[in-house]
Write a structure and sequence with these properties.
It is a single chain. This protein is mainly beta. 13% of the residues lie in helices and 45% in strands. The chain has a five-stranded mixed sheet, with no helix packed on it. A five-stranded antiparallel sheet has the order 2-3-10-5-8, with no helix packed on it. A hairpin with a 4-residue loop joins strand 15 and strand 16. The protein starts with a helix and ends with a strand.
Length: 242
């Protein structure tokens, strides 16, 4: 073999060795640099904005069995109102996936006082996920000036903190409440379907026919009573935002 051929052979052999070595390590380097992409909550395609008045923003979430959200970021305190029994896997960025069971009518609160967080939700149970995520767009008040709580049936305090007070309201067919004060900045969520009659102290009346997942926002305070005009029991959740 001539001297030129020997040099060429050695060069090719060395080049192949470097190529193999680079090929071994490049996938590992690429994987190490891969970052999980996170999008703002309002851009997550399963979160549909249904209401926004600058104080609260309500997202409706409907995900079928086996479906999942994208990894998305929560930047504000939020309440979750659950409309169907369901089971999910909560995959928190930087944490371990956790299985969570939600009964219909349950309410969960998550604070961002210690910082924003990102997660994705996987519907791992046999039933779809239907909820409303209510973001609190205003900052937490330094002091709470909420009305006195309602403690008698059919009002049941489910949750109370510095951001809101949450009631579960269950009315049998034809059952009415006593008069009560519903404060300004309240949201009424329908867990079941049905009809209620609202009668104010001025004797004006309103009928509300609703399906599970419907809601109403009340901007002003009012004294009134409720009556179940359905022939089945109804379940409602009221969130009084502070």
């Amino acid at each position: 073999m001539s001297e030129n051929l020997q040099i060429r052979s050695i060069f090719l052999s060395t080049a192949v060795s470097f190529a193999c070595l680079f090929g071994m390590f490049s996938p590992i380097s690429s994987t190490a640099q891969t970052k999980v992409e996170t999008i703002p909550m309002e851009l997550e395609p399963n979160h549909k904005i249904r209401f926004d008045n600058g104080k609260v923003r309500l997202y409706e979430v409907n995900i079928p069995k086996g479906g999942a959200t994208l990894m998305h970021e929560h930047r504000a305190d939020n309440f979750l109102i659950i409309f169907e029994d369901t089971e999910i896997t909560n995959d928190l960025l930087g944490g371990k996936p956790a299985l969570v069971k939600f009964p219909a009518g349950s309410v969960r609160f998550t604070s961002t006082a210690n910082g924003e967080y990102s997660h994705r939700v996987i519907v791992s149970g046999e039933k779809p996920l239907h909820l409303i995520a209510m973001e609190l767009l205003s900052i937490a008040p330094k002091t709470t000036t909420a009305a006195n709580p309602r403690r008698d049936p059919p009002f049941n305090i489910m949750l109370e903190n510095s951001r809101a007070r949450v009631y579960k309201i269950t009315l049998a067919p034809g059952e009415s409440t006593d008069s009560f004060i519903r404060p300004a900045g309240a949201v009424l969520f329908a867990i079941s379907s049905g009809r209620i009659r609202e009668t104010t102290d001025s004797m004006s009346e309103r009928l509300w026919d609703f399906e599970s997942g419907n809601f109403k926002w009340f901007e002003t305070s009012e004294k009134l009573s409720l009556k179940n005009e359905s022939n089945i029991p109804i379940d409602l959740v009221e969130v009084d935002v502070f």
